[in-house]
Amino acid sequence: FLAFRDAPEHVAVHTQPHEPIVKATGGQKQQSEVGKEANTRHPFSCSESDVKQLWLQLKKDEPHLLSNFEDFLTRIFSQLQEAHEEKNELEYALKRKIAAYDEEIQHLYEEMEQQIKSEKEQFLLKDTERFQARSQELEQKLLCKEQELEQLTQKQKRLEGQCTALHHDKHETKAENTKLKLTNQELARELERTSWELQDAQQQLESLQQEACKLHQEKEMEVYRVTESLQREKAGLLKQLDFLRERNKHLRDERDICFQKNKAAKVNTAASRASWKKRSGSVIGKYVDGRGILRSQSEEEEEVFGIPRRSSLGLSGYPLTEEEPGAGEPGPGGPYPRPLRRIISIEEDPLPQLLDGGFEQPLSECPEEEEVSDQGVQGQIQEAPPLKLTPTSPRGQPVGKEALCKEESSPSAPDRLFKIVFVGNSAVGKTSFLRRFCEDRFSPGMAATVGIDYRVKTVNVDDSQVALQLWDTAGQERYRCITQQFFRKADGVIVMYDLTDKQSFLSVRRWLSSVEEAVGDRVPVLLLGNKLDNEKEREVPRGLGEQLAKDNNLIFYECSAYSGHNTKESLLHLARFLKEQEDTVREDTIQVGHPAKKKSCCG
């Protein structure tokens, strides 16, 4: 009892958790669970004396709790007994499990020993089999080697027999070899004599080929000169004929007008003579005034009767305005008739004959003119001096004529002649390119080419004089048939497009198709992109031109006729290509080569 008094806190610690459990539980099952929980939380470690003292203390102090305490102790002892029994069962189960594990391990150990034993037996068996197979293989190899040795022995014996036979034949071979040497020397001398004869024949053949080539070139140049002269004469005659027809038509129109104005002219004769006397300083002044009176009278008639003036059309098709009166009337720029200043031929150039010698027959000597007006006007016209007609053209002298004069004035004739045709849309700069290449100058405001124009330029290509006959064609659709006819005898074609005009580049494929239809792929084609100087307005990138040239196997350049960039380089590239192509064709001709000497077997 002194222990409980001295340590009340200890008793409170052990008794405090049990009091609410006993009060809160009403049945035995719940008390047992609470007792187990209390036992797990606070293990019962008191001895029998301590329990007895606690029981006596409860009996003395609080006897009403004695029954509960006894029940609690009963449950505790029953639980301890159950735990002890469970422990015994677990120990027994553990022993049985250990025994089962021992048996299983013993079984596994026995199986492992059996497997090791079987593996050893299999390994020994395989090793024995391998050894036997290796022994058999070595025996077979040994047999093969013995057979080979026997065969080699037989071959050696046979070769010894052959060597003996060859030794016997050696003397006979030496005798034959001596005879063959003599024969070989005779054949060598004959071969040398034949080779000299063949060299002489080959030199003669080469000289004949060179002479034939020179004759062929001279013939080509002669034919070219004769053809060009005939073409120029024909063109000049045709131009003169067209001019005379136009002039005749104009004079007939004037004759009809003068017949209608005859009455009006007689009425105004006195006034006109008075004006002539005032202007009698020069004969040409009378002629000019007379023509002016006729024009003023025709204008008055048109104003009175309301007759519309018929527009005179020259060969170019341009209507004549008031500043450009009909032929024979002096314009404001001088006494020469304006329609004669623009005579368009197939090259759209002035007549070479008119430029050189002029039109010798005066306008007043035409038979139609003498019958047109009355005697007074006729006398004034006949007194007029002959007019020297020198028509001018915005394009100047004919390009073909100027280049031809340069060619004729050159001291030496060209070695080669190539005909190159320029094609492309209108206004891409073909004519300006030709002028830059031939004359090294640029002329702005060039008129469009009508039909065909040409130039001839001699260049030096690899120490060889090459004449380039450059044909400028019209780019309009109406001249397409004329352009295609020039492809057939062309040595090269230049297709030009404008870098600032995308449509001209799109038309390149159409021009290439025309070239292919006419000549196939035997003619080299140079693709030129012009107007490189106008880089700001470029519409066709350089890559497109290079890709098109690569796809169609063309030579490609971008140039500028304005600055002269790549004008000479591109044409020299094409001329060099044409020269190499012609050299290749010439080399493909049949030539007799030197025969190779056969080496004699006897030296």
UniProtKB/TrEMBL annotation:
Keyword Nucleotide-binding among UniProt keywords: yes
GO cellular component term of the entry, any: specific granule
Entry-linked Pfam families: Ras (PF00071)
Domain of life, source organism: Eukaryota
Entries under CDD domains matching the protein: Rab
SUPFAM superfamilies to which the protein is assigned, alphabetical: P-loop containing nucleoside triphosphate hydrolases (SSF52540)
Gene3D superfamilies named among the record's database cross-references: P-loop containing nucleotide triphosphate hydrolases
GO MF entry, a single one: GTPase activity
InterPro entries, sorted: P-loop_NTPase, Rab, Small_GTP-bd, Small_GTPase
The keyword Hydrolase appears for this protein: no
Stretches assigned to coiled coil: 80-254
Keywords: Coiled coil, GTP-binding, Lipoprotein, Nucleotide-binding, Prenylation
PANTHER family on file: RAS-RELATED PROTEIN RAB
Protein name from the UniProt record: Calcium release activated channel regulator 2A
Organism: Rhinopithecus roxellana
Recorded name of the encoding gene: CRACR2A
